[in-house]
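Reply to dn_fold:

You asked what the input looked like. This is it:
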Amino acid sequence: MASQAVLFKKVGSTFTVPLADGRFGASRILRVDPEREMSLFAATEYIDSRPPEISDPLLKTILVANEIYAMIGLGKCVKWQYWLEPPPRQFKYIGVVKPSAAEERLDPENFSKFWDHWAAGILVEWRWRHDQPALEAEFDKARKEPGAYRRFIAKRKKEVEITLEKLKKVKFFNEWQGHVPAAALRESRSLIREAVEALIGLGRKPTKKLALPIVRLCIEGFNGLDEKYEFISTIEREDILDQIDEVLRVAGAKNYDDWADGFRDW
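and this is what came back:
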């Protein structure tokens, strides 16, 4: 049999994914991109106590994660994996499942060179659907904080429900009142609100090419404010970056964690 590195570069290659509870999931390759040296990996809906047969119809599915508590990604569990790290040996090759034409057109902005999240994500989704009480107990125990799971879920539900239109009406940086110049607070709120309005104009799930100039304009605006009022210290910096991330998340942007770093002077 060919090596993992070779099979990883073959469309349709399908692998078992051993799970922490002793069961098995399965993932498959939908497409390859030799130019970027990546393969598009997808988790399936298969999960059972035995590895699947290649004829199992569940191997033709794509796992769709919930929007509240997911580890691979929200929605379809599909992610580009870099060829630098082929699937681990525990991912046993079981054959070829030819992707559909629609699956071959998928091109998410999700990337990884690690593999642990596949097993964890498949199992968490199953537990979300079938075993929430135990999942809640483990969550609280790990954080040594009773009620942590329910607070986390409530916060995530609120985040999922918010829209850019609703976010535009929020009073940003309330905790700054009395700690930074009033004019700096007022103009900071305007910068975020202008970014929100610009992102609304792009529609749902804007690309990096379209959204990055909006982030740059916003950050450069904060550069000017800090030069004018000298108010951005550690707390303000983290608040600004967190707020920009929140705006981009609500807009549906992907992989935006470091977008602001190349433009800020603070």
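The CA atoms of residues 226 and 232 lie 6 Å apart.
Hope that clears it up.
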